[in-house]
Amino acid sequence: LSGLDPAQPYFQGTPTEVRLDKSDAVFVDIIHTDSAPTIPNLGFGMSPAIGHIDFYPNGGKEMPGCGKNPVSQIVDLDGIWEGTRDFVACNHLRSYKYYLDSIIYPDGFLGYPCASYDLFQSGNCFPCPEEGCPNMGHYADKFKDKVKRDFVKLYLNTGEARDFPLWRYKISVTLSGKSKVKGYVNVALYGSGGNTKQYQITKGTLKPDNTYTAYIDAEVNVGQVTKVKFLWNNNWINPTFPKLGAATITVEAGQNR
Question: What are the subcellular locations of this protein (predicted)?
Fold first, then answer.
């Protein structure tokens, strides 16, 4: 049984007979997309974990792409009716849109078990544990025999618009060169499943022999990495023409460690 942002008003905090609960089916998975308090945030969705596994995409409160200006949202690619509904309840309705995309992407929407969204964002809950991570949405039930705890909270990030799934990677770059400079470092991944855009790994002071690490949520499942593109730039014209390279670049995929 999949709960798509179960309602908060009149249901949150009520007895299990009244609301959706994990006792309602052999396996209950929940997607929380609008769990901010109803007052003053107009959150329509429930925040507590109530299933066997509970997914909190983007932290479960504010979904990317829902904060754009109201006019552009109402006159949307999906048409005026869809756009108007999104304007009124965009976060709430993201749950079924994620579910739709999950049918098309059986390897997408990996939920990482974590104590909080902040810890997930900072990389504390990366990579997936040895038993793997469940997939939010249609294929969540593939995980039903692996649930060992009463409540499992899972976090992930999504895109702003369709297609919504993102794949998480940890990228570490050790720099080489003769002197430190100010600037930024970008990396793009190429692989058997596709190529990513450039992602910024660090900006500010770049020191040779230092290692810089970032967690990226890529728009494609790269698969087997075949090539990595490294780009650095300094923020202003430097008459000494400093040179900087990557001594090593390490890529770790969240799903298969």
Answer: Cell projection, Neuron projection; Secreted; Zymogen granule membrane
